[in-house]
Specification:
CATH topology: Glycerol-3-phosphate (1)-acyltransferase
CATH class: Alpha Beta
Shape: globular
Order of helices and strands: HHEHEHEHEHEHEEEEH
Helix content: 25-40%
Number of strands: 9
CATH superfamily: Glycerol-3-phosphate (1)-acyltransferase
CATH architecture: 3-Layer(aba) Sandwich
Distance between the termini: 34 Å
Strand content: 15-25%
Number of domains: 1
Length: 216
């Protein structure tokens, strides 16, 4: 039975069903988006952007990323069952799936992410996904930003009432009709990295910015 459920979960029908269920659910939120104008102006004028967030707050993105559909936002997703389910939803929200993760196919996926950003100028990245540890920024986003000459825009979501799942990241699902705020932080243009020590400093800097917005 479990194998049949896994097989069904990967089908296009299951992906479409889940996407519409999530989208209708997210439509109940009283959504407010803050500080979008600066980075979006940069994007519209030809700049390249990587929007990055914690895995914990991915759920709200289904509604938000529909706003940027024309850019075919690149999103790296693992080939695990959870990753394939998430990809089915993200694709219908206007994202382009790049298959890979830090543990499998990472090098190839990083190169594809860089090429997609050069062509389409917008990507989204889960900082601590797909398996955590929660709140630890992986170095891939730094490599992508340098390779694509893209600015990083950290983003976080908060809600006045939410459920938190019993998962590695305490995945957040705002309750129906919650007040949800999506806040974009100022964009970051990284200086060239001379060595691995520079990359680690930049990774740690981004982690320090984002850690206060990981909810426990």
């Amino acid at each position: 039975m479990f194998k049949k459920l896994r097989k069904f979960a990967k089908t296009r029908f299951a992906g479409a069903l889940l996407y519409w269920a999530v989208r209708l659910y997210c439509a109940t939120f009283r959504l407010k988006i803050e500080n979008e104008a600066e980075w979006f102006k940069y994007l519209e004028e030809g700049g390249r952007i990587i929007i990055c967030a914690w895995h914990q707050q991915f759920f709200v993105g289904v509604r938000v990323f529909k706003r940027y559909k024309k850019y075919s936002t690149a999103l790296m997703t693992s080939r695990s069952l959870d990753g394939q389910i998430a990809a089915g939803v993200a694709q219908r929200a206007g994202c382009y799936t790049v298959w890979g993760s830090s543990s499998r196919g990472g090098g190839t996926a990083l190169k594809e992410m860089i090429n997609r950003i050069k062509q389409h100028r917008l990507a989204a990245h889960i900082l601590d996904g797909p398996r955590g540890p929660a709140g630890i920024v992986k170095a891939g986003v730094i490599a992508i930003a340098h390779g694509a000459d893209a600015a990083i825009v950290p983003v976080y979501a908060r809600a006045d009432r939410s459920w938190y799942m019993h998962s590695w990241d305490k995945f957040m699902v705002p309750k129906p009709f919650a007040r949800v705020t999506v806040n974009f932080c100022p964009q970051i243009k990284l200086p060239p990295a001379k060595d691995k020590a520079d990359i680690e400093k930049q990774r740690q800097m981004l982690e320090n910015i984002m850690r206060p917005y990981l909810y426990r």
